[in-house]
Specification:
The protein is mainly alpha-helical. It folds into 2 domains: 4-104, no CATH class; 133-209, Nonspecific Lipid-transfer Protein, Chain A (2-Layer Sandwich). It has 10 helices and 2 strands; from the N terminus they run ααααααααββαα. Strands 1-2 form a two-stranded parallel sheet. 39% of the residues are buried.
Length: 210
């Protein structure tokens, strides 16, 4: 598992890569629906800006103001950072890409955010990306041991044996689900987008839970 410095180095690199991928995107493409229900790719980018500048103290202040409604906190964050011109939102993201502020939680959550939200944006736009397997597995390990109440995916993968095709070591016990680590991470995060890349008798149960 990467240490904190290694995680931040990876997160910063992924943020800058996303900026490069979105530079020059035509105006009409910013409104394409993301993998996050109800959000456009522009909304997800605004959320990434918000997350990059949110400190632990600010997070708890926002939670109190939102009466501890996490979805409301996210929606307000998007509204704060979603500029009228998507290119301005992209420039804002570029400006905060190297920050190490973070809401409460293990550093692995920053990897989950970088990879899952990166795919929330890229896949609907038809942008293909590959990711280093080790930090993807760190993100997956966090998701499968963390309950849904804390943003994890433990309940989604309960009773399943996740077998990454590109990394060593299965996770969990039960019906097998095989495929790339990224596809397993997306499924554990509640996205159906990677299901086509998965095989095994546990896929049907996983699909029912998404």
């Amino acid at each position: 598992m990467p240490n904190d410095a290694g995680i931040w180095e990876t997160v910063h690199a992924e943020r800058h890569r996303l900026v490069r991928d979105l530079t020059g995107l035509s105006e009409d493409r910013w409104s394409v629906p993301a993998l996050v229900p109800g959000w456009s790719v522009h909304d997800v980018l605004a959320h990434l800006v918000d997350s990059a500048v949110t400190t632990r103290r600010a997070f708890w202040s926002q939670m109190v103001a939102a009466r501890f409604d996490f979805d409301r906190v996210n929606e307000r964050g998007v509204a704060r950072h979603r500029a009228a011109d998507p290119r301005a939102t992209l420039e804002a993201f570029r400006a905060v890409a190297d920050r190490t502020d973070t809401p409460p939680g293990p550093r692995a959550t920053r990897l989950v955010e970088a990879y899952v939200h990166g795919e929330d944006i890229r896949r609907p736009l038809g942008i293909r990306a590959t990711y280093p397997v080790e930090p993807v597995m760190t993100a997956l390990d966090y998701m499968i041991r963390t309950g849904a109440g804390f943003g994890g995916g433990r309940e989604r993968v309960a009773g399943l044996r996740l077998e990454p095709a590109d990394a060593d070591g299965a996770r969990g016990e039960g019906s097998p689900v095989r495929g790339p680590a990224l596809a397993l991470l997306l499924a554990a995060s509640g996205r159906r987008a990677g299901l086509a890349d998965l095989t095994g008798s546990g896929v049907a149960l996983l699909d029912e839970r998404l």
